[in-house]
Amino acid sequence: MEPKCRLFCHHYLQTASVEKAARLSGASLAAGIAWLEKPGVVRALGRMRARRAAALGDETAVDRLKTLLAGSPADVVKLAFLPPDTPPESLDGLDFSQLAEYRRLSNGTVELKLIDRVDALLTLAERQEKDDASFLPLLRALAPDAGTPPDPGENQREDEPAYD
Predict the structure, then answer these.
(1) What does the angle CA 139 – CA 145 – CA 151 come to, to the nearest 5 degrees?
(2) How many CB atoms lie within 10 A of CB 56?
(3) Would you kindly state where each structural domain of the chain is located, as residue ranges?
(4) Residue pLDDT, tens place only, 115-150
(5) By mean pLDDT, which of 23-32, 103-112, 143-152 is the weakest?
């Protein structure tokens, strides 16, 4: 893999944005998109993700997961409907953080693979299994009201007897 592509991959993993990764690596957006279509680059990204996941600290992993969970696939879906000759500049500002793989076939078919949010959550849960306390910030972020017990009479009808 050429050095500029490797740098692009590094920045893509950091930012989860094709646009930002291309800009930071000194490549064009079109080059970044083209690299993400290459199976060898996709495999390299997978290996880099695995190494990075093993090296991440708990707080960094939680922060990254929050970012992924909060992202929207709307811009990724928009990408699928754009014509192949769309200028890369028109993609500026779009959020591709949910995009895992992108491929446009010669017949015009577009294949998109989004990140698996459930898989990411389960992976992190497995890592945190030994230390339940470090997993609490993630759970609080996903369900901020989960730590507050409900009011016992909150959902009770007036004509329903109270159970103590």
Answers:
(1) 140
(2) 16
(3) 3-142
(4) 887 877 776 666 666 555 555 565 566 555 544 544
(5) 143-152
